[in-house]
Amino acid sequence: MFAAMRQAVNDPQAGFCRDCLTPQQRAAARRCEHCGSPRLLRHSELYRLAIAHIDCDAFYAAVEKRDRPELRDKPLIIGGGKRGVVSTACYIARINGVRSAMPMFKALEACPHAVVLPPDMEKYARVGREVRDRMTALTPLVEPISIDEAFLDLAGTEKLHGMPPALVLARFARAVEDEIGITVSVGLSYCKFLAKVASDFNKPRGFAVIGEAEALGFLAEQPVTLIWGVGKAFAATLERDGIRRIAQLQAMERGELMKRYGSMGDRLYHLSRGLDERRVHADHDAKSVSAETTFDTDLASPEDLVPVLRALSEKVSARLKKAGIAGRTVVLKLKTRDFRLRTRNRRLADPTRLADRIFSTGHELLRKETDGTRYRLIGIGVSDLSPDDKADPSDLVDVAAHKRALAEGAIDRLREKYGTKAVETGYTFGKGSRGRPQREG
User: Fold this and answer.
1) Residue 179 designated active-site
2) Is 266 annotated as a binding residue?
3) Of 3.40.640.10, 1.10.150.20, 2.60.120.920, 1.10.1020.10, which CATH number belongs to 222-272?
4) Which of 64, 149, 314, 416 is catalytic?
5) Secondary element (H or E) of residue 229
């Protein structure tokens, strides 16, 4: 197939049709010369880029609409439960103002005729594995980010597939739609950051390309919130400093940004210029971010264990924030004095990157294990990772959670400026570098 395409493939400005994959002969054509589809893909670097981000469109809702055809043309909300918030909304509901993490009562005010279904995580995981299996058939370099999205590196796969990565991805998207019954959006670029940005364009069924030559100019026009890790709180900090657009970051020196914003300043410097050297790492198992410590002497009492748990939770939180990710499942790890391992986990209603939520969940799990057993190791971590843009929505039950999150943000800024020991909580104050009790003698 690729041999017949070779001449057309050499002209990326003519591109190809995303529906029938036919290469186009005329760069100015508005519809496919073969099937008449308007979904043509063109870009000057189209056949040279190999880093992709694939994101399933309104995943939970799409799976439910596939299984319940009567809901196809109706607004659908997945969510509810104890927290009373939206997990996913279909695009019909989104047009009416419904958003993920929105309180359910507000969602139904915006879209009173919406159908509301509770999430079926077992089914979504099964469909997610089907999509993932098709990804790994394209390249061994698949890095899952969550149940419904992943990065892929297709460099060097052209001989295997007989076509360049752009065509492979378009064929993949069509196969997922035809065979699994849901749709995906694809972002293609030269680095992970811009591939993720591109996949958010033109959803659903999107396919966007950001090339290296256009990166600086494209980024200059964007708001700072486009940068991975710049959430509402940090965007407000930048706003107070008069920084709203990425062009302003591009005009600043790396040293100045790091002096103002610590390690986050380094990220701002590089990503604002389209510089992202992170590689796609194959990971077929559940990814996690964790921290653990082994004691010099075995510990059993909550008075000794809880401060350590708090310190480790803060370390995990810092790593999540630095990476711009969040986790939905909190995992507690304990190793007894006879080297037996205990792991306990709890799945949260939504992803978190906050030390407060990681610690409080881990603390609840630890209470059941402080039964006099002596432990030589304790660890805490989170799994089911995803980008942090949907992490820690407002909690309708725990109204104080928002205040604690704001306080944690203030502590983070002070620590970035003055060091990790500039501010300590009551759990860890005076307990040593890892929250361990200070022993005399």
Assistant:
1) no
2) no
3) 1.10.150.20
4) 149
5) none
